[in-house]
Specification:
By secondary structure, this protein is of the alpha+beta class. The chain has 12 helices and 10 strands. Strands 1, 4, 5, 6, 7, 8, 9 and 10 form an 8-stranded mixed sheet that branches. Strands 2-3 form a two-stranded antiparallel sheet. Bound molecules: adenosine-5'-[phenylalaninyl-phosphate]. Adenosine-5'-[phenylalaninyl-phosphate] binds next to strand 5, strand 7, strand 9, strand 10 and helix 10.
């Protein structure tokens, strides 16, 4: 029987010695420092490889394999020991006299969608079921898309109806979602129908029905023939589906340079049932949903021939619709971030 070389004896002894050290580790911390000492980058086992030059050439391959095997054996022993120690910790906790498995866990506080998101999602569901695209256009807009393309040149008094936050770049924060109308006309081939919900910004004094940052939903339908009847029908469908009750609405002529004819659609105030309150400025009615037939100049700006194509559009005050659905008396509560208010929904 040939005698084992010294290095082989040393490695065999190493297996026994490391196993004993692992068994002696009585905490996760001491096991971890043992692991670093044995297997870490500067650990004792990887360091054995540095001795290869002193091993006779014909033994070097076997030596390398033996060191690798030692490394694997010690790593497996450490893992097994770690499992035993963790199980011991769990057992200790379960056996602790003060531990009561029957006590319920502390209930987690779950968040929920903001009412604006809920109503917006309902509106999107209604319109997608009618074949509308749902689009998302930028909040920072060009003067062209927000005003000029909509038949509102620089000198036009309608610009003052929407006080504007201007950026130093000459861009602006969109004052209404109508800024997406001409973008949509360029994006889609007529005929098409789309809604584009979003946040809009106006530099104006706030009160119970006016915020500087609020939400609108624009609707746009382009086809060869569209009618005011179809527009008003769609608006009624929308309101009764969202408010889930019969509500009184009234239609008045309304002036917007980008529609002709234009309408103002008001809703009977749902906060005070029409009695008069701060939400409706004591009028009993709230302006909610202006709309009309797309002006030929806007169709032209969108690359459409007004002799061939027509359109209707609406600009729903989403924040006010949320107020009407839930009876919220002040629009500023919606974006105010007060959890006492928001947790009611
Ligand atoms: C517009 O913004 C037009 N772009 C709407 C439009 C679209 C007309 C397409 C015709 C065709 P107006 O400024 O009235 O219009 O705003 C539309 C709705 O947004 C209002 O009826 C109201 O419900 C809501 N709204 C307006 N200003 C505020 C505000 N400061 N705070 C909260 N809601 C507002």
């Amino acid at each position: 029987m040939s005698e084992l070389p010294d290095w082989q004896i040393e490695i065999d002894q190493g297996v026994v010695r490391w196993q004993a050290d692992v068994d002696a580790a009585d905490s996760l911390e001491s096991l971890r420092s043992l692991e670093v000492r044995a297997l870490g980058k500067a650990g004792e086992i990887p360091a054995l490889m540095k001795r290869i030059p002193q091993i006779p050439p014909q033994d070097r391959k076997s030596f390398g394999q033996a060191v690798n095997a030692l490394q694997g054996t010690v790593a497996a022993a450490i893992e097994a020991r770690r499992l035993v120690l963790v199980e011991g910790l769990i057992d200790a906790e379960l056996n602790d006299a003060t531990f009561d498995a029957a006590v319920g866990a502390v209930p987690l506080k779950l968040g929920h969608p903001h009412p604006l998101s809920t109503v917006q999602a309902d509106i999107e569901a209604i319109f997608t079921s009618m074949g509308f695209h749902v689009l998302d256009y930028p909040e920072i807009e060009s003067e062209f898309d927000n005003f000029e393309a909509l038949n509102i040149p620089g000198w036009h008094p309608a610009r003052e109806m929407q006080d504007t936050f201007w950026l130093e770049s000459g861009h602006l924060l969109r004052t209404h979602t109508s800024s997406g109308q001409v973008r949509a006309m360029h994006q889609f081939k007529a005929p098409f129908r789309a809604i584009f919900p979003g946040k809009v910004f106006r530099y104006e004094a706030t009160d119970a029905s006016h915020e500087h940052t609020f939400h609108q939903v624009e609707g746009l339908m382009i086809d060869r023939k569209v009618t005011v009847g179809h527009l008003l029908d769609s608006m009624r469908t929308l309101l009764s589906a969202i408010l889930q009750r019969e509500v009184e609405i009234r239609l008045r002529p309304g002036y917007f340079p980008f529609v002709e004819p234009g309408f103002e659609l008001d809703i009977r105030c749902q906060v005070c049932a029409g009695e008069g309150c701060s939400a409706c400025k004591r009028r009993g009615w709230l302006e909610l949903l202006p709309c009309g037939l797309v002006h030929p100049n806007v169709l032209r700006a969108g690359g459409l021939d007004p002799d061939e194509w027509q359109g209707w559009a609406f600009g729903l005050g989403l924040s006010r619709l949320v107020m009407m659905r839930y009876g919220v008396p002040d629009v500023r509560l919606l974006m105010g971030g007060d959890l006492r208010f928001l947790s009611q929904f």
